Amino acid sequence: MSAHILMVDDEPDAEELFRQNFRREIRKGALRFDFARSGREALDLLAFEDPPRVLLVLSDINMPGMTGVELLDEIRRRWPSIKIFMISAYGDDSTERAVLEKGAEQFFTKPVDFMQLKEQLTTLVEATG
Ligand SMILES: [Mg+2]
Predict the structure, then answer these.
(1) How far, in Å, from the CA of 18 to the mean position of ligand 1?
(2) What is the pTM of this model?
(3) Do the beta carbons of residue 40 and residue 68 sit within 8 Å?
(4) What is the pLDDT of residues 35-44, one digit of tens each?
(5) What is the pLDDT of residue 52?
(6) CA of 61 to the centre of ligand 1 (A)
(7) Which residues sit with Cβ closer than 5 angstroms to ligand 1, an ion?
(8) How far apart are the CA of 129 and the centre of ligand 1, in A?
């Protein structure tokens, strides 16, 4: 069972950071990561597979062009079964409340606590079989 995750972040270093932190899971085939650098690119990737096999989208909030919150709205509308975790450099309560109300499962602040993220990912993957 391999869970497919789409990571969306405009920061060029984000991909390498996630590949390093999930090295073991990726090598074992437990997790598969795709990376997009914008909300638009993420939507194009999701639309490419019908229905998308992505279990979870992990998205940054502050990105040029489409924001992570706009991406969240669009994914909820088009693919309601996809789970979404949001990540922001700014951990204010109102942003967290807003994205959870819009249907995100979790909210993380940067720098990402990878122990906590892995726990939440494991819970999610086990719950969705
Ligand atoms: Mg950003």
Answers:
(1) 15
(2) 0.95
(3) no
(4) 999 999 999 9
(5) 86
(6) 6
(7) 10, 60, 62-63
(8) 31
